[in-house]
Specification:
It contains 17 helices and 40 strands. The chain is an alpha+beta fold and 666 residues long. Strands 14-13-10-11-12-15-23-21-20 form a 9-stranded antiparallel beta sheet. An 8-stranded antiparallel barrel has the order 25-26-27-28-29-30-31-32. Helix 5 crosses helix 6.
Length: 666
């Protein structure tokens, strides 16, 4: 077996590979840019080599720099993770010339399958069902419009060398095809160094289901069931699960066998994924083959018990697969939620900064539940603007889908992140969404269910009353602690009241609290009583509370007169007052936010790519005003109404912070 491998990647996937290598007794080498000097993967590896400035095109994807790191450290093999050089045939060729093993497929398979246009042609020749589209290269925007009309709208504009949602646009009209072609081309060039574009029919009401394949160099190929990846935003997966709640055994088998046949046709070896669009009648169409490990591979590992990274290393070393198709199991259900450094309340725009608090839920593994968190960050670390905004993959497993969802709900509520914008509230909202719970979703789930963006969660009455009862009991404990510290309690004489009014989500709940050594009983005006027990103490940022035998997890921030709480996707400002305080508070005028309706504010930290208007221009609703680049993605900011530009405060090349004023209007 290899004695030392280099991981040509960063973040959580580099940490993930290091864990398996360590388990196998293999030494590891990390590479890092200036921005990652103190990154977790650098701390975890046995050795680390600096390879350049923060931008990936000056460090992580510069083949010569990675090869120099290999030579310096004497690494015998390289695991590329995903993204960066993982599907770069030139990199595989350079490793081969150096006599270093590539922990991935042969370069020929990368060339044929890594290119979406070529892979689709091969799939057609292998009689795999494919989506209608134009397989040739498209020269310019006019050509894109012409081809789109021939295929028929809607169409998907995709980067040939793309992945992870980069360089992908859906167009429903000529204008969108023209604009989407240029944006896709720019993103593809920046992310992959390859701006080739192709177009295919966009299948409406689709589900995104993929098959995990595993092959060795001795002619053995198997599939390890499927993953459902339909919860997506801008073609970027957000939540995945295995197995799919939609497939039947016959469809699963057919998709698996076609995937294996396709892999065998190109001499594939290593782990790979064949992606399909599946319609409501279970017809499936080949999309692409990813010749690498997928981000969502943990859910497959959790239901099969197969360590895919270990298998990749063994295949690269020349070993035969120790697993046959008949050995592949499907045990229970697994779900993965991708924790992104992005603000769901600002259209999911990227967020950067320092993680002032980062406390994932404790990882556990029992016969009835598993919690796994693949991450590449730590408390005090910094989220950079130079790389993908995903900072962790939270996974849960349980014997049934319903149980796995419930484990995920509690795990998300228990995840503490502060210092940056993050999508934990949105992930929690999806776990409680009726369509997700039923398994009845398509790749349009987010845009259909959140057409105006994510505006937070409104808790149902039953859940809100539970929160109110918990907040009242917690506030009483905090008040007792405060009075003891201030010396206002003599001989433990009670000076803290029993009657309170809890205000949350626009509602008021008068309650009365009776406490004893085992907990507290919270009584509501309608006669309902909730029994509460918890070991929460003032200052704890997380409260796990038992309410009538069921568990409630709250993220807690103490504020004047109450708490700021997060649970089940809802972020609540909760006030707990005495009856007299509540009476007086009702008389206070409401503070109004400042008027920013005549300003264009920067929604995220980023770089101004271009400004499309000038002072004095009259702009129409929906007109492009400027383009901001952040986290490798271009974001076009548009006018919300017809107006006139009166002032422009930023130009191309300027770096902006959140809420910087880009321009002002009449």
């Amino acid at each position: 077996m290899f004695k030392k491998i280099l991981i040509a990647n960063r973040g959580e996937i580099a940490c993930r590979v290091i864990k398996t290598a360590r388990k196998m007794g293999i030494k590891t080498v990390a590479i890092y840019s200036d921005a990652d000097r103190n990154a977790l993967h650098v701390k975890m590896a046995d050795e680390a080599v600096h390879i350049g400035p923060p931008p990936a095109n000056q460090s992580y994807i510069v083949i010569d720099k990675v090869m120099d790191a290999i030579r310096q450290t004497g690494a015998e093999a390289v695991h590329p993770g995903y993204g960066f050089l993982s599907e770069n045939a030139k990199f595989a060729e350079a490793l081969e010339a150096e006599g270093v093993a590539f922990i991935g497929p042969p370069k020929g398979a990368i060339e044929s399958m890594g290119d979406k246009i070529t892979s689709k042609k091969i799939a057609q020749e292998a009689k795999v069902s494919t989506v209608p589209g134009y397989m040739g290269l498209i020269e310019d925007a006019d050509g894109a419009v012409k081809i789109s009309n021939e295929i028929g709208y809607p169409v998907m504009i995709k980067a040939s060398a793309g992945g992870g949602g980069k360089g992908m646009r859906i167009a429903w009209s000529d204008d969108e095809a023209r604009e989407g072609f240029q944006s896709s081309k720019n993103e593809a060039a920046n992310s992959f160094g390859d701006d080739r574009i192709f177009i295919e029919k966009f299948v409406t009401q689709p589900r995104h289901i993929e098959i995990q394949v595993l092959a060795d160099t001795h002619g053995n190929t198997i599939y390890l069931n499927e993953r459902e990846c339909s919860i997506q935003r801008r073609n970027q997966k957000v939540i995945e699960e295995a197995p799919s709640p939609f497939l039947d055994e016959a469809t699963r088998k057919a998709m698996g066998e076609q995937s294996c046949a396709l892999a065998a046709a190109v001499g594939y070896a290593s782990a790979g994924t064949v992606e399909f669009i599946v319609d409501g009648d279970k017809n499936f169409y080949f999309l692409e083959m990813n010749t690498r490990l997928q981000v969502e591979h943990p859910v497959t590992e959790l239901i099969t018990g197969v360590d895919l990274v270990e298998q990749m290393i063994r295949v690269a070393y020349g070993e035969k697969l120790s697993i046959k198709q008949s050995d592949v199991k499907r045990d229970g259900w697994a779900i993965e939620s991708r924790l992104y450094a992005e603000d769901p309340y600002r259209g999911f725009l990227p967020s950067i900064g320092r993680l002032t608090r980062y406390r994932p839920p404790q990882e556990v593994a029992t016969d009835t539940a598993v919690i796994r968190n693949d991450t590449g960050v730590y408390e005090g670390g910094e989220i950079s603007m130079y790389y993908d905004p995903m900072i962790a993959k939270l996974c849960t497993w349980a014997p049934t889908r319903a149980a796995a969802i419930e484990e995920m709900r509690v795990a998300l509520d228990s995840f503490e992140v502060e210092g940056i914008g993050h999508n934990l509230p949105f992930l929690s909202a999806v776990m409680d969404h009726p369509k997700f719970i039923s398994g009845d979703m398509t790749t349009a789930f987010i845009e259909e269910e959140y057409p105006d963006g994510f505006e937070g969660v409104t808790l149902p009455e039953e859940d809100l009353r539970r929160v109110a009862a918990a907040a009242a009991a917690m506030y009483r404990v905090a008040e007792i602690r405060r009075t003891r510290v201030s010396g206002r309690m003599d001989n433990h004489e009670r000076v803290v009241g029993t009657d309170w009014v809890v205000q949350a989500q626009g509602q008021h709940f008068p309650v009365s609290i009776g406490a004893d050594r085992e907990g507290a009983s919270v009584s509501f005006e309608d006669g309902a009583v909730m029994r509460i027990a918890s070991d929460w103490t003032p200052g704890d940022s997380l409260a796990v509370i038992d309410i009538d035998g069921s568990r409630l997890v709250l993220k807690v921030d103490k504020t004047s007169g109450g708490f700021r709480l997060r649970t089940r996707g809802a972020e609540l400002r909760v006030y707990v007052r005495s009856p007299r305080q509540a009476e007086l508070a009702a008389l206070m005028p409401e503070k109004l936010p400042p008027d920013t309706s005549k300003m264009l504010l920067c929604p995220m930290p980023g770089l101004v790519v271009k400004v499309d208007v000038a002072v004095g221009d009259k702009v129409q609703e929906g007109q492009a005003l400027c383009t901001i680049e952040a986290m490798k993605m271009e974001n076009i900011l548009r006018a919300e109404k017809t107006t006139t530009v009166t002032k422009i405060n930023a130009g191309a090349g300027d770096s902006l912070a959140v809420d910087d004023v880009i321009m002002e209007f009449e």
